[in-house]
Write a structure and sequence with these properties.
Among the domains are: 167 residues, no CATH class; 125 residues, Nucleotidyltransferase, domain 5 (2-Layer Sandwich), CATH 3.30.420. 48% of the residues lie in helices and 13% in strands. The protein starts with 6 loop residues before the first helix and ends with a helix. The protein is elongated. By secondary structure, the protein is α/β, with parallel strands linked by helices. β6, α8 and β7 form a beta-alpha-beta unit.
Length: 455
């Protein structure tokens, strides 16, 4: 008689089947991660039941007793009365979402079975979350994935080498193709630049991964580029941005970034016609870092009051007039606080013009283009995923993981609202910055000038 397929075997079959249906790679990897969580937890629970009963699935008590007697002892594997009686579905809440496992049911036991992982009724666990992450995204290598599972739960928890190899190779291949794709079709209004640091090399400090994404002229978000670098230097950012331009990326209207000198210098060199907006959130942190704890709340409120346009009502006209108003407020802030906190005021006044560039753009876009938190939140998701890893086994592993997370996250990014008024503003800016009218060459011949005027 054919034995029933165990829950762990069923999960392995589901994972292997994912690569045979021609679905998008990113969706497949996400499903593999979720199934991997089920596989690890299911295997752990089944192993607990084996240890509790003192025998494996389908192994009879008499056989186990005979084996133990023959080997000369039963201290490490006591045989308890009772037997498995099917499974019941149990939903376990993890940080990656709810996962349903088949919880074994026991009958005929002299004592109640309680899982060390979940107890008798707990449905939330973080105990194996680190193993899930480490197994499927840690090194993106066959050895790392197999090792993480085998070390934690024994050889029975490991996936087949072919499945692990398929996952790892597919991610790297997809990332390589993404890095070489043509960008001539990408036309941006807004370009966000930022970096996040990860430990990629043994014995070295955390190193940056540079990231670029933006909003197209149609108001759609797009993930543009990603690359590892040794430092956030001008050369590193210049090489990265130049590669994007070489693949067809056109200059945006506005570049939003923090105040990293290397980033700013490279952006101005590669995109000299684009305007630049300095992140107001980063600048607020810089200013508050130079203010005593007792005054930080007041100074913070005064800082954000500079950029608050609510008192102007609905009749707001973007442009130089609005820029001048906020620059006047910056001067007023400086007059108020320069006596007590000169260092904080100096920080605010440095590169002050870049704090108000966004005021030239459509009003409905202001709250999202005056800071780079849009990109930082996504980097935060990446750091959450890899927090338990500590250090990656190499640069390729790190960049591939970050790409996989960001590429998935990009599918859920919100676009920008485009109104008819806003479109006119963007069109005028585009014409003035990127496509200025050709100026006639001056001439010293008065007769030619008169002829031109008469014509």
């Amino acid at each position: 008689m054919t034995r029933r397929v165990s829950p762990t075997q069923a999960i392995r079959a589901e994972i292997d089947a994912l690569f045979a249906d021609g679905r998008d790679l990113v969706e497949v990897i996400e499903d593999v991660a979720r199934l991997g969580a089920r596989l690890i937890i299911q295997t752990a629970v089944e192993a607990e039941v084996d240890a509790f009963l003192g025998r494996a699935r389908y192994q009879r008590t008499a056989t186990v007793t005979a084996t133990v007697t023959a080997t000369g002892g039963d201290e490490e594997a006591p045989v308890r009365p009772g037997y498995r009686n099917g499974h019941c579905p149990t939903t376990v809440k993890t940080t990656s979402g709810p996962i349903t496992i088949a919880r074994p049911k026991l009958r005929g036991t002299t004592e109640k079975f309680a899982s060390r992982l979940f107890g008798t009724g707990v449905t939330r666990t973080h105990a194996l979350e680190t193993l899930v992450i480490a197994s499927f995204v840690r090194g993106l290598s066959v050895r790392d994935v197999e090792g993480a599972l085998a070390d934690a739960l024994g050889p029975e928890a490991a996936l087949s080498k072919s499945t692990v190899s398929t996952i790892c190779q597919a991610i790297v291949a997809e990332y390589d193709a993404w890095c070489r794709r043509d960008l001539t079709h990408v036309e941006l209004d807004y370009l966000f630049l930022d970096a996040s640091h990860f430990k990629m090399h043994d014995g070295s400090r955390a190193e940056p991964i540079l990231a670029v994404w933006g909003i197209t002229t149609a108001g759609k978000p797009v993930f543009v580029g990603l690359a590892a670098a040794a430092a956030e230097s001008t050369d590193a950012w210049h090489d990265f941005l130049s590669d994007l331009v070489a693949r067809g990326l056109r200059p945006p209207l506005l570049i939003i970034s923090d105040g990293a000198p290397g980033l700013i210098s490279a952006a101005e060199q590669v995109f000299p016609t684009s305007l630049r907006q300095r992140c107001l959130v980063h600048r607020a942190r810089n200013v508050l870092a130079k203010v005593s704890a007792g005054d930080q709340a007041e100074v913070k409120a005064a800082y954000w009051q500079i950029f608050d346009l609510s008192e102007l009502g609905d009749d707001i006209t973007v442009g130089q007039g609005l820029v001048d108003l906020v620059q006047w407020r910056i001067d007023a802030f400086a007059d108020t606080w320069s006596g007590r906190y000169p260092a904080a005021v100096k920080c605010l006044l440095t590169d002050r013009q870049s704090l108000t560039t966004y005021l030239r753009f459509p009003l409905e876009h202001h709250k999202r283009i005056r800071h780079s938190n849009f990109i930082e939140r996504t980097f935060g998701e990446t750091r959450r995923r890899v927090k338990v890893i500590g250090r990656f086994p190499g640069e390729t592993s790190c960049v591939s993981l970050v790409w996989a997370v960001l590429d998935r996250a990009a599918r859920g990014w919100r676009g920008f609202t485009l109104t008819s008024k806003g479109l006119r503003i963007l069109h005028d800016l585009r014409r003035a910055l990127l496509h200025p009218p050709t100026q006639l060459r001056p001439t010293d011949d008065p007769a030619l000038e008169l002829a031109t005027e008469a014509a």
